[in-house]
Amino acid sequence: MPTLTEFVLETLTHPLVGRLSFRYGAARVYPEGYRTHIAGCVRDGLIRPTIDTGVLGTTRSELPAAAFVMEPRPGEVHPMFFHPHSFDTSGTNVFVKTTLSANELADLRGEVIHEATHALQDWERRQLDPRTAEGAAYLAAAMTRWLWGFRTFGEIVNERCSGHSYSLVLARRLLAAGTATFDVPADDVHILNGLVTTGAEGRYLYNGIRVQPRRVRHHLR
Ligand SMILES: [Zn+2]
To answer: How many domains are contained in the chain?
Structure first.
């Protein structure tokens, strides 16, 4: 099984990510964002996949499945946390558990893309309201789950019971339409934004991941 970082990079650069191309309100999702921008930050160590709960800051009663820490300043390490239950450790190495089912792996791919979508929002320094930021991440993750063969246990009866279920139904509809790139209908954005779970407002800090290159100055002698 791959290490956590290998799994993250393999997901971000996989050909299936080519299907993740849409506008969701003010949020934008596009394949090169994952393959080039975010995978590049992981390779350069600016984004660090980890199962260390210490990166989450405050002690929570329940650990999230995953979380991207947006607060660090550009040039500082941005932790990308994953719940330890899917991993084995050996010394300082973290490996994806060999016992995960195909469904659990598809789910984990979805978590990677959810957090990478937040990373892309931070990378772009695009100010988004938390619900739109989450809605775009839920939808990209739901598309990823289907693309990797995720199966639900029976039909989704009430699609509006949660952000998770609505994003799965919406993702399936949009994938079935087969359009290379699309605008998510405003009605769907409105509904999904009303169902998603958001973190504290202050955790959505779109201040960038990389230090912006200085403008080249021409010194005249
Ligand atoms: Zn999120």
So the answer is: 1
